Amino acid sequence: MLRFFRRIRQNLLQENKFSKYLLYALGEILLVVIGILIALQINNWNEERKARDDEKATIRSLKLEFEKNLTDLGASIENVRDIKAAGELLLQHTGPGYTDGDINADSLISFTQRMVVWDPSLYTLSSIKNSGQLATLSNEELKLKLIEWESFYANLVDWCDFYVDGGEKYFQYLEENSIGRNFTAMRGARYGNSSFPGTNEALLREISFENKLVGRVTVNRFLMEFYEEAATRIEAIIELCQQYEE
Question: Model pTM?
């Protein structure tokens, strides 16, 4: 096409038709400009399509990560609920009037020593944040939920640190005031119960144990509430991620 215009321009110059020459020259320039603009637009379309495909792939990985985290979190919630329930059952029997044999104290106290710290995968979310993709997500609601999740999770980590610290103090109290070998026997240790006199049931008549147990039950209750809120937030994020598949 451009060669055709060039031939016409040469003929017009030879015929001294300068005005028509100019017109065809401008036409040639216009065609070149239009061609460049079309090429740029096609390139933009390709870049936008690639960006959408990359975002979909990233969100797919993010969804899988949060789904795995939610499954693990569900198991953690059940474990914390069981620890809390064991502590609450013990608290129903603490006091000076407790009679040995009313409940299986060794089993229940042993159960309250369990520690449940949910440790979710943060690899994909961290990659999105560090690469700058979080700021460019097309779904504004998902972007906001992920930003809120980061803040919430930071608070959850702080609470878990407090939970672990309280658990260690509870373990230390039991180490100093209980017959620990009886607990391990309940967990299936082959060397059996201690031959020292006394039982762990005596703890239920101690105000110091009751105080420690109240603290242990309370932190597990708060932890369960934190975990349940985490599950609600994760479910909302997964639902938003699913919109990319529609």
Answer: 0.77
